[in-house]
Design a protein that fits this description.
By secondary structure, the chain is α/β, with parallel strands linked by helices. It is 33% helix and 16% strand. The protein folds into 2 domains: 152 residues, SPOUT methyltransferase, trefoil knot domain (Alpha/beta knot, 3-Layer(aba) Sandwich); 57 residues, tRNA(m1g37)methyltransferase, domain 2 (Trp Operon Repressor, Chain A, Orthogonal Bundle), CATH 1.10.1270. The strands form 3 sheets. A 5-stranded parallel sheet has the order 2-1-6-5-8, with helices on both faces. The protein has a 3-stranded mixed sheet with strand order 3-4-7. Helix 3 runs parallel beside helix 5 and helix 4 crosses helix 6. Bound molecules: adenine.
Length: 247
């Protein structure tokens, strides 16, 4: 179960809202999850505290220097961070809900956020154990991706959601999209709540929800519908990769 997250980032301020707001803020406030940021800029030894440099071979943009990143990773690990390093990058393995479930079962994460055009490849070869992507698009850095992954995993931790069954009913958890939700008033701007939901018949309500969820999934996400349902709920519980780098 996730207890501690360490983040290597040039912009620790990105995580101020994660620490204080909403569900993640509450989990951190209540001590369920500990969050520590490590800034590679604090591990530079030149007067400009430079963390990037021009790319060998030319081209636009700047590349993150390996040494400040390595020192920040090693300092985090010496302080008790996870030994396996997870780099958030569009070249990584694409995350889905099953991947998030597996990640939420690890006790610690050490997340590496890149900036600029990328990170010196030798740092990745030497110290990174896995690369994860949140989607086939390019962000300006790994921070929003780390934010997304943290939010999705922390809400799955026991006791974090007010109603644990809401995580089980999420879109994707059962290999299909969620059913629609309604609240009062029963008629809003001429639109009535579907009669099944006000019938008081729990069997009928479940049947209606399952049917709409199935129809939505077929129409909106035929790829998801075609995928075989995971028969073993533990099937996705993969352990973290063996770290390359032991302290
Ligand atoms: N960094 C930049 N783009 C990203 C993406 N799509 N997923 C994870 N990290 C990223």
């Amino acid at each position: 179960m996730l207890r501690r997250i360490d983040i290597i980032t040039l912009f620790p301020e990105w995580f101020d809202s994660v620490k204080t707001l909403g569900l993640t803020g509450r989990a951190i406030d209540q001590g369920q999850v500990e969050l520590k940021c490590w800034n590679p800029r604090d591990f530079t030894d030149d007067p400009h505290r430079s963390v990037d440099d021009r790319p060998y071979g030319g081209g636009p943009g700047m590349v993150m220097r390996p040494e400040p990143l390595a020192l920040a990773i090693e300092a985090a690990q010496a302080n008790g961070a996870a030994s396996a390093v997870t780099y958030l990058s569009p070249q990584g393995q694409l995350l889905d809900q099953a991947g998030i479930q597996a990640l939420s079962k690890r006790s610690q994460w050490l997340l590496l956020c890149g900036r600029y055009e990328g990170i010196d490849e030798r740092l990745i070869e030497a110290l990174v154990d896995e690369e994860l992507s949140i989607g086939d698009y390019v962000l300006s850095g790994g921070e929003p991706a780390a934010w997304v992954v943290m939010d999705a995993a922390i809400r799955l931790l026991p006791g974090v959601l007010g109603h644990p069954e809401s995580a089980e009913q999420d879109s994707f958890s059962a290999g299909r999209l969620d059913h629609p939700h309604y609240t009062r008033p029963s008629t809003w701007r001429g639109r009535a709540v579907p009669p099944a939901l006000v019938s008081g018949d729990h069997g009928l309500i479940e049947q209606w929800r399952a049917q709409i969820a199935a129809e939505r999934t077929k129409a909106r996400r035929p790829d998801l519908w075609a995928r075989p349902a995971a028969s073993d709920p533990e099937a996705s519980d993969v352990p973290p990769p063996a770290p390359k780098h032991d302290l």
